[in-house]
Amino acid sequence: MNIFALRCRVIEDYAAYIRSFIRVSDERLRHFVEQQLQSEVLWPEPLIQLNPSFESGPSIDELVAQGILHSECSRVFRIKPEPSSTGRPLRLHRHQADAIRIAQSRESYVLTTGTGSGKSLAYMVPIVNYVLRMGSGRGIQAIVVYPMNALANSQRGELHKFLCHGYPDGRGPVTF
Description:
Helix content is about 45%, strand content about 5%. The protein is built from 7 helices and 4 strands; from the N terminus they run H-H-E-H-H-E-E-E-H-H-H. A hairpin with an 8-residue loop joins strand 2 (about 80) and strand 3 (about 90). Helix 5 runs parallel beside helix 6. It is elongated. The chain starts with a helix and ends in a 12-residue tail after the last helix.
């Protein structure tokens, strides 16, 4: 299948569909509308992007060894495919580790990076680390606001994997 030929066919079909119900009596407006349709205003050029490769950073275990993170973070932040799994070490991207280090200084920071690059982990690790260092059971220690319920639900699932999987009865060291 030639994806570019497919695109052309889809655009041609869509253009024919659009033109089938546009009836403009005024000649100047009809000319303007036709120019807009020919300039592909309704179907811009395809956007082609590469999925960037993010620079590798240290593992959670390495940040624990450096004293940046609480020792329990080595157990919490692991890749755990099953609820009973203790998992395997989690390696961060450099921008995540940088954000975690800045968070430890209690300075404000903004992390902007692409979709799927681990922004959520870059703020969840510092929050969990803070609760572990300060001690849980002290009431609400952080509030995270999400723009959509779907994202909130997705993040809840990720937190569940990190904070419940690998712990007896699914009860980890931090509640959420």
